[in-house]
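TICKET: design request
STATUS: open
ATTACHED STRUCTURE:
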């Protein structure tokens, strides 16, 4: 039987309607949730992501601001922009679009963002909360992916979860979130030996590699939940890391690309920003 499609557009529509209601309630208290995105340089993919974030804000009635800085921006100039936004009461969420040009230090920039305005959840404080399971901002992509996994209704307790990719922004936090749900988690990466032996055991398989068609049907267990985080461009077309057409014949659930995790990532960003704005409301 063909897999059930986990539709990020449909899920996002429902969630964004709820977010819009929270935005309206905040506006009644005189607060308009605001997101600021800093974009350094001219990376074409980043341009698209930043535009989609702005569109998402508009859709739910939030304020958004894009700060465009030239490629040759210095670390000091970038840090000072972040500090200005930290001090700006109209801004509840600050996001530095990654990747930054090579001469800039991502970790230094991320560490400058106030943890309570760090709506991407990349600040070390929030990464620490994620690790310890205490309250903090959860990174948008793994948070959206977990939402999609939970939407299947399967009991995650004790399930075998395999994540391919160990980046700080997707793979590692994804593995942590699944661990928090009591899955038995295997985190695979470019040095993993016999990758397919791991992936074939997975009840939940998350691919965050950045290689089109990397996960093939023979790597997938029958009935598995397959979450495709990858965003790749092949001949001008966007596709994920999973060979969707063949894997969907074997999996129980699968996310499409586009219209899957990417859409949910922006929805979670909006949600994190509204959370940040709500925290500023005086009791
Ligand atoms: P990354 O390049 O930082 O990490 C890729 C990971 O893949 C690495 O940890 C590496 O070890 C692993 N890898 C590479 N080759 C491998 C192999 N042969 N076998 C096993 N593992 C291998 O990338 P990232 O930032 O984590 O992003 C991964 C993908 O997800 C990219 O396509 C990116 O565009 C996409 N992405 C999507 C969203 C979204 O909202 N959907 C958000 C962030 C990233």
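STATUS: resolved
RESOLUTION: sequence designed for all positions
ATTACHED SEQUENCE:
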């Amino acid at each position: 039987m063909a897999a059930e499609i986990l539709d990020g557009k449909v899920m996002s529509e429902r969630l964004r309607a709820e977010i819009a209601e929270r935005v309206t309630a905040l506006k009644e208290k005189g607060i308009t949730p605001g997101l600021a995105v800093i974009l350094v340089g001219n990376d074409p993919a980043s341009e698209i992501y930043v535009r989609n974030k702005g569109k998402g804000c508009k859709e739910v009635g939030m304020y958004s601001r894009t700060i465009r800085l030239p490629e040759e921006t210095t670390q000091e100039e970038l840090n000072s922009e972040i500090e200005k936004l930290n001090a700006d009461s109209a801004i509840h969420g600050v996001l530095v679009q990654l990747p930054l040009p090579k001469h800039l230090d991502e970790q230094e920039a991320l560490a400058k963002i106030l943890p309570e305005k760090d709506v991407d959840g990349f600040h070390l404080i929030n990464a620490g909360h994620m690790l310890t399971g205490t309250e903090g901002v959860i990174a948008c992509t793994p948070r959206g992916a977990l939402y999609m996994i939970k939407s299947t209704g399967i009991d995650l307790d004790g399930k075998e979860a395999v994540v391919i990719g160990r980046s700080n922004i997707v793979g590692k936090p994804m593995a942590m979130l699944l661990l928090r749900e009591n899955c038995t988690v295997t985190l695979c990466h470019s040095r993993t030996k016999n990758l397919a032996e791991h992936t074939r055991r997975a009840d939940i398989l998350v691919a965050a590699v950045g290689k089109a068609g990397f996960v093939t049907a023979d790597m997938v267990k029958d009935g598995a939940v397959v979450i495709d985080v990858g965003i790749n461009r092949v001949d001008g077309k966007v596709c994920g890391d999973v060979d969707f057409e063949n894997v969907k014949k074997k999996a129980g659930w699968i996310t499409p690309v586009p219209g899957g995790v990417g859409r949910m990532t922006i929805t979670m960003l909006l949600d994190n920003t509204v959370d940040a704005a709500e925290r500023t409301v005086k009791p």
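CLOSING REMARK: The pocket of nicotinamide-adenine-dinucleotide is lined by residues 141, 164-167, 169-171, 188-190, 192, 195, 208-210, 229-232, 261-262, 265 (CB under 6 Å). The chain has a mean pLDDT of 97.
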